[in-house]
Amino acid sequence: MPSKKVTVAVTGLNNVDSPGPGIPVIRGLLDSKEYDVRIIGLSYDALEPGIYMHELVAKTYQIPLPSAGIASIMERLKHINSVEKIDVIIPNFDAELYNFIKMAPVLEKELGIKSFLPTMEQFEERHKANLSDFGEKYGIKVPKSKMIFSTAEIASLTKDFTYPLVVKGKFYDASVAYSPEQAAQYFNKISAKWGLPIIIQQFTYGTEVNVTALGDGNGNTIGAVPMRKQVITDKGKAWAGITLEDEELLNITRKLIRNSKWRGPCELEMIKTNDGEYFLIEINPRTPAWIYLAVGAGQNHPEALLKMALGEKVKPFEHYDIGKMFIRYSYDMICDLKEFETISTLGEL
Amino acid sequence: MKIKKNIALSDTGFVFNPSTGDSFSVNPIGLEILRKLKDNEPHEKIKKHLLDSYSTDADSVEKDFYDFTKMLEQLQLTEADAK
């Protein structure tokens, strides 16, 4: 039986078809053999499924959207902490990380809430818009990319790019455009949702492979598990995946974490070409939604993250099971209107 | 031509490539050939074994063996420097 009691606040409870990582992170935490973890969910929308998963989440509080600003989020967290006495907070969305990285020292000093996040420098330099520089700095191959702010810039892209190319939002969304017309169409669609800039990236032919990894901030890789998506949804999300034996990919991951002294979780999205070359197409500064595959394969990254946030020394994982699979499924929960009413009106459930 | 060392073959004919995550199914004869290739048996010896063991002729064995090994190459189940 786990003996050490700890209260952990987690965001990303939107376990939908394009899922946030909150629920799989929570499952990893609850699998801990050392910690008896009480989960406090932090949600942005009253219909995030995790709010109603009472077997996983003890209590959920609505928090202001990242755009509300640090003061507003801080105020809400002060109230939540006064009730729940949170030990550690694990934010799981790219869009909220800026605020949480900024708030981290104050959260720890004033409220005693610990976290283990990338530094602001790491967070900023791995942005999609800065990925070329990031690759050059840390010796990782990256497809050519460029930020654009208007559809008027699309016509001149052929000077530096050849079609097809990838049109990407600054936080989420990516589509492959085979013509300037398609590029303009995706520009409008993605910028309407996620704002500007839009990132244009040269399309790289090959197989997408991903790694979920955890860095200790001193250059050591605490864990890394590579995966290939076996079923991909129309939103490009993995609906099934399998762990791979790929030493080269792990070496690239270790090199990146060593050189950047990456702190906290990350997901590397890579393309392996038919010639066996690897190109980094994205680095997400958080755990991926498929993190529970790593737990199932023998590396409980959420638990290791919790320990590092608490200031414990964590030994690097040395093994994971190759050929371990995850298959996602959808499941209809039956919920009472009363619960929906409570979270909608009182902001907590 | 060599089958990659890390390719897993099960008795049921399930073939798993841990480098790519791909998996395939082969029939008992395919499994027999794969095992012999994995044991580095010479191609001529494998073809002779097939000719002796099954009701077939040399031309069919030659053609089918060639098709099969080419498919293994395309599916990235062979070493990169395969010939």
Give the tags:
A: 349 residues, alpha+beta, Rossmann fold, Dna Ligase, domain 1, 6-stranded antiparallel β-sheet, globular, B: 3-stranded antiparallel β-sheet, 3 strands, 47% helix, 12% strand
Would you kindly provide a written description of the structure presented here, covering whatever features stand out?
- The complex is a heterodimer of chains A (349) and B (83).
- By secondary structure, chain A is α+β, with helices and mostly antiparallel strands.
- Among the domains of chain A are: 4-116 and 332-346, Rossmann fold (3-Layer(aba) Sandwich), CATH 3.40.50.20; 144-202, ATP-grasp fold, A domain (Dna Ligase, domain 1, 2-Layer Sandwich).
- Chain A is 32% helix and 25% strand.
- Chain A is built from ten helices and 14 strands.
- Chain A has helices at residues 22-30, 70-84, 94-111, 120-125, 131-138, 180-194, 247-260, 291-296, 301-309, 337-346; strands at 4-10, 35-43, 59-62, 88-90, 145-148, 165-168, 174-177, 198-202, 207-216, 221-232, 238-243, 263-272, 278-284, 325-327.
- In chain A, the strands form three sheets. Chain A has a six-stranded antiparallel β-sheet with strand order 13-12-9-10-11-14. In chain A, strands 3-2-1-4 form a four-stranded parallel β-sheet, covered by helices on one side. Chain A has a four-stranded antiparallel β-sheet with strand order 5-8-6-7, with helices on one face.
- In chain A, a hairpin with a 5-residue loop joins strand 6 (165-168) and strand 7.
- In chain A, helix 1 packs across helix 9 (301-309) and helix 2 crosses helix 3 (94-111).
- The longest helix of chain A has 18 residues, at 94-111.
- The radius of gyration of chain A is 20 Å and the shape is globular.
- The mean pLDDT of chain A is 94.
- Chain B has one domain (8-74).
- The termini of chain B are close together.
- In chain B, helix 2 (43-53) crosses helix 3 (58-74).
- A three-stranded antiparallel β-sheet of chain B has the order 1-2-3, with helices on one face.
- Chain B has 83 residues and is of the alpha+beta class.
- The longest helix of chain B has 17 residues, at 58-74.
- Chain B has three helices and three strands; from the N terminus they run E-E-E-H-H-H.
- In chain B, 47% of the residues lie in helices and 12% in strands.
- The A-B interface holds A 207, 227-228, 230, 241-246, 276, 322-323 and B 6, 8, 16, 18-21, 80.
